[in-house]
Write a structure and sequence with these properties.
Oligomer: single chain
Radius of gyration: 17 Å
Number of strands: 22
Largest sheet: 10 strands, antiparallel
Shape: globular
Length: 307
């Protein structure tokens, strides 16, 4: 896929998402440390595939990434499996209408439409769902990144088999993919050499995405309440070796990650209460709005899904 990253050409490879903290002890960031994250769940499709997801206001629907969805029923679990919810039929999974899947070259990602809605058999009442962020364009704002994917250190990347526990960290939406509109953030080590878009990050709270975080949420804190602003979609790296700490696409320092976000009231602008059946489920989605990205450093960046 030829995509424009911050005004410059980039090449992509597909890949799923998860949060990786830069602390020397990533276990310190695991678990439901913030009670407001109880609505962040893990979705498992009976036809195969596990991703992260978020419960929407009203408790009847969850939101995840389209590249995670398969034609089957399944289960969403919250609070480490203490609360579970079923979706029994494939017809309860509604992929965003303009999603066409991911090509071998990563094409299909970055167009702000990597979304799927899942109607649950019964509304979840034990944990609170999330309303969508309704403020201005979030580029430049700090976000709380959450997910159930792999963990690890920014110096060495994601550790295979380490996922399955809710984790979180912080980052800042740096820029957009021109033509795709997805919001992206880099994984800062605190050293300028590993800062793809500028800035030095959030120290030991800095986080990025890795396998298993796809479909998870980024939040903005609005007066103490979390508002869902982005759905994790992909990761990428600087193909010229300008920032990546180890030269491998593995969620290490100097790489970047991207969310389908709510800019211009885009694909994320969906109903957060009752949604009608089934083709009409996306009638609450407003049209995509083209947004001009801020110009950043020139990079060539392969991107990949982070399911």
């Amino acid at each position: 896929l030829a995509a424009l990253l911050g005004g410059m050409v980039g090449a992509w490879l597909p890949g799923p998402a998860q949060a990786i903290v830069s602390s020397t002890d990533p276990a310190g960031w695991l678990g439901n440390a913030d009670a407001r994250l109880a609505g962040v769940g893990q979705v498992q499709f009976s036809g195969g595939g596990t991703c992260s997801a978020s419960l929407l206001d009203g408790g009847a629907w969850v939101l995840t990434a389209a590249h995670c969805a398969v034609s089957s029923g399944g289960q969403v679990s919250f609070l480490g499996g203490t609360v579970t919810a079923l979706f029994s039929q494939p017809s309860q999974v509604h992929v965003f209408p303009t999603w066409t899947g991911i090509g071998a070259d990563g094409s299909g990602l970055g167009h702000n439409n990597d979304l799927a809605l899942i109607r649950l058999d019964q509304a979840v009442t034990q944990v609170a769902g999330y309303a969508l962020y309704s403020g201005s364009d979030p580029i430049g704002l700090d976000v709380l990144v959450t997910g159930y994917g792999q963990t690890g250190l920014g110096t060495t990347g994601a550790v295979a088999g380490s996922g399955g526990t809710l984790h979180w960290g912080r980052n800042t939406y740096d820029t957009r993919l021109v033509g795709g509109q997805s919001a992206v953030f880099d994984f800062d080590s605190g050293a300028s050499a590993n800062s793809l878009f500028g800035g030095l990050g959030h120290g030991t709270a800095e986080a990025s995405l890795a396998s298993g975080d796809s479909g998870g949420a980024s939040f903005i804190d609005v007066a103490g309440s979390l508002r869902l602003v982005g759905v994790h979609s992909f990761i990428g790296r600087d193909d010229l070796g300008l920032a990546d700490v180890d030269g491998h696409l593995n969620s290490s320092f100097g790489e970047f990650a991207g969310d389908t976000d709510d800019a211009g009231r885009s694909a994320l602008k969906i109903a957060v209460t009752a949604v009608p059946e089934p083709a009409a489920a996306w009638l609450w989605v407003l049209g995509l709005v083209a947004i001009t990205a801020r110009r950043t450093r020139s990079v060539k960046s392969p991107a990949c899904p982070i399911a």
